[in-house]
Amino acid sequence: MCTTFLSYEIVKFLKKQKVELVDYPSLIRFNPNIPWKTRGNGAVRLIVKTNNPQKIKNKIMEFVASYSDIKNGANPGLVFYQNESLPTSFHKFSKLALWKLISRKKAKQFVSENKIDSFYLGNGQGLVGAIGAIGYKFSDHTFELLCYRKKSQFGKKRIVSKDSVKKMQSVTFPETFSNYDNENDRVLITPHGPDPVFYGIRGETVKSVVLASTIVSANEKLDGYMVFKSNQGTADHLKNKLEVDDLKPYVSGFLLGEVCSKPTIGQGGHVFFSIQVKGRKIRCGVYKPTKITKIAQCLIPGDRIRVAGGIRKASKNYSRILNVELLEITQLEKNISLVNPTCKKCNKKMKSKGNRQGFECNKCGKKLFSKLNLQIPRKIQAKLYLPVISAHRHLTRPSQRIKKRNKSTLFEPSFPWFNVFKADGKFLNNNTLDNHSIILEYD
Ligand SMILES: [Zn+2]
């Protein structure tokens, strides 16, 4: 159904069992360019301390079994690792899952080689994310508060006050991000599918997302929320420098190269061009919704660029291509055009006298034999160009995060990072922050 909701239900259970959570739940997004991923290719990690691991494991397996929509193609995977420290093989596996395609066969092999306690349903593809989540090491992180609906509301239209979301963004930005699209006047926090999430608020700290949630008003009684530590907004999948031999379908990463063909505009307004990387030509596609198309159109052969994105598999009509998610121009080529010379005296364009006959000024008769090199000013700059916010993916690093890195966040179990609303179903903006005077920080 939804991995994060399942985790929310599991944490509800763990709290009732008085199982100690050691860190915030982590929501890790893996390679978004995998075709058979779940929508956001996300996996959740929970770290707990318990005296009765077997009982907890059994119960969690029951949760996974009862919440998984196997009939509709869900392939959940669950992995337990019981130890103080983690073998490096987990980290390696996790790193690869961020940008590569990892087969379920590899995941099953990993499980048996490392004698790991695991459980899966369907084809076992979910094991890739589960192993990856355990092995994931944060080098930067953000938080997302996910607020869930009551079961009776699942599938119904979400009604949220637009003004409250706008206000939330204006009060908390840049401590929260990607929540409201000012340009298109669109709320970005509510998903559109039938999943249990009512909204998700992204931000830099637990406090900022919890505060933000108190500003948003929903038109229904919500069940509760949980804050996840996440690699969303960190461009994690694009960190990896791709080599020309890596360019297999569905891999993600970045390439450094030189533009070697004039951009062309295809159907739908998408822009295509080629770059040269170590003697190989690689086609790149920039899609209309990113709005970087206007920039890509102005590229000329010789421009040095860094492009990041995912490799799309070749189809009947298209060759293998890099779908561009980020375009950085590192060096602009001079745009030189050969033009008919101008007569300096009369300030008039000279006329060609025919093939290889040179040029002549109609007014004073002055003659010149060759065309002139004219440098045409470039319309684009040597800088980083990002897609517009409406085309962002979970992992896209938004512009205000470009230089930001969150190193470590201390787990504060007493702070309301997890909240199940009372049965009297108060609206979210009246929830339980009474003991935490966090609002003052934003005054
Ligand atoms: Zn002249």
Question: What are the salient characteristics of this protein?
Answer:
alpha+beta, seven-stranded mixed sheet, five-stranded mixed β-barrel, 8 helices, binds zinc ion
Structure description:
The protein has helices spanning 3-16, 53-67, 88-99, 104-113, 126-135, 162-172, 206-215, 293-296, and strands spanning 20-21, 26-29, 42-45, 48-49, 77-80, 117-120, 142-149, 176-177, 180-181, 186-187, 197-203, 222-230, 252-259, 264-265, 271-277, 280-286, 304-312, 321-331, 335-339, 342-343, 348-349, 351-352, 359-360, 367-368, 372-376, 384-385, 418-420. It has 443 residues and is α+β, with helices and mostly antiparallel strands. Strands 2, 3, 7, 8, 11, 12 and 27 form a 7-stranded mixed beta sheet that branches. Zinc ion is lined by residues 343, 345-346, 348, 361, 363-364, 366.
Large-scale geometry: elongated
Helix content: 10-25%
Low-confidence runs (pLDDT<50, min 5 residues)? 426-443
Query: How many distinct helices?
Result: 8
Question: What ligand molecules are bound, each kind once?
Answer: zinc ion
In short:
The protein is an alpha+beta fold.
Question: Topology of this protein?
Answer:
Blueprint: H1 3-16, E1 20-21, E2 26-29, E3 42-45, E4 48-49, H2 53-67, E5 77-80, H3 88-99, H4 104-113, E6 117-120, H5 126-135, E7 142-149, H6 162-172, E8 176-177, E9 180-181, E10 186-187, E11 197-203, H7 206-215, E12 222-230, E13 252-259, E14 264-265, E15 271-277, E16 280-286, H8 293-296, E17 304-312, E18 321-331, E19 335-339, E20 342-343, E21 348-349, E22 351-352, E23 359-360, E24 367-368, E25 372-376, E26 384-385, E27 418-420
Parallel strand pairs: 2-12, 16-18
Antiparallel strand pairs: 1-4, 2-3, 5-6, 7-11, 7-12, 8-11, 9-10, 12-27, 13-15, 13-17, 14-15, 15-16, 17-18, 18-26, 19-25, 20-21, 22-23, 23-24
The protein binds zinc ion.
